[in-house]
Specification:
Elements (H helix, E strand, L loop, with lengths): L3 E11 L4 E12 L4 E5 L6 H8 L7 E6 L2 E2 L7 E4 L11 H5 L1 H5 L5 H13 L15 H14 L4 E5 L7 H17 L3 E5 L3 H7 L2 E5 L6 E6 L2 H4 L3 H4 L3 H22 L1
Parallel strand pairs: 3-8, 3-9, 6-7, 7-8
Antiparallel strand pairs: 1-2, 1-4, 4-5, 9-10
Length: 259
């Protein structure tokens, strides 16, 4: 049994005048501990699929199961990290990181200690009494990651969490997130438009077609890249070869959609 099973997922958006088929017949099995990236043209349904996996959106057809349990609503086993950090400006950093635990009634001394240890690992323990407005964008995203990990989710969903950051901060945060997820043996799905980011962080890359989104191709990232940090991976010869292969196929997809 796969850790995460995505079985024949399709989803339609309806208005009074039209019906739009966002994704169609998507099936994928993901093993525990894998890091998978979703890549594809804009509007191909990547975020729609992530919302379905999170239990935030019901598919028109198909099902998603985590460890054999069908996902029909948000679950504490699934953590969701977005492009924006959505920190509460009137709460301290520590209070923000403990919010998920408080809402799910899991806040106790052990879980608080675990969360503070995560803050320490992220280099944020010395700002735990500060407020979000006092932190940089990269620091705020690290806080958002700690808040997501604090509830100990088994599956982490990442929806373009680095896209709003400057390039240098983005590269540093990629390394930090990669190491953190590997150390905590988390399974993760990343939605991104950045081919380099997908290659540097992933075990496999799922390339989607234009709308309606279908799985066009799945790329396996070489062991030589998977075993090193994202920043190092970008300088590896295998990185350039895979980048050119994916870029060519993605470019062909985008050209077809514009014709």
């Amino acid at each position: 049994m796969a850790f995460l099973e995505i079985d024949q997922i399709s989803h339609d958006y309806f208005t009074k005048e039209t019906a739009t088929n966002a994704i169609k017949g998507v099936s994928l099995n993901i093993d525990e501990g894998e890091f998978i990236s979703f890549l594809g043209p804009s509007g191909c349904g990547k975020t729609t699929l992530l919302s379905i996996i999170a239990g935030l959106l019901a598919p028109t057809t198909g099902k998603v199961a985590l460890k054999g349990k069908k996902i029909t609503e948000p679950d504490t086993q699934i953590g969701y990290m977005l492009q924006q950090d959505y920190l509460f400006p009137w709460k301290t950093i520590e209070e923000n990181t403990l919010l998920g635990l408080r809402l799910t009634k899991q806040l106790n001394s052990d879980n608080k200690e675990y969360t503070l240890a995560l803050l320490d690992q992220m280099g944020l323990l010395d700002v735990k009494d500060s407020y979000p407005s006092q932190l940089s964008g990269g620091m705020r995203q690290r806080v958002a990651l700690v808040r997501t990990l604090a509830t100990k989710p088994e599956l982490l969903l990442l929806d373009e969490p680095f896209s709003a950051l400057d390039y240098q901060t983005k590269l540093k945060l990629e390394d930090l997130v990669f190491e953190t997820l590997k150390n905590h043996k988390k399974t993760a799905l990343l939605v991104t438009h950045d081919i380099g980011e997908a290659i540097a962080m992933s075990d496999r890359i799922v390339l989607f077609s234009t709308r309606p989104g279908k799985i066009q191709r799945v790329f396996d990232v070489s062991e030589s890249l998977r075993s090193i940090k994202p920043f190092q991976a970008r300088n590896d010869s295998d990185f350039s070869i895979l980048f050119q292969t994916i870029w060519k196929e993605l470019n062909e997809l985008e050209n077809k959609s514009s014709q």
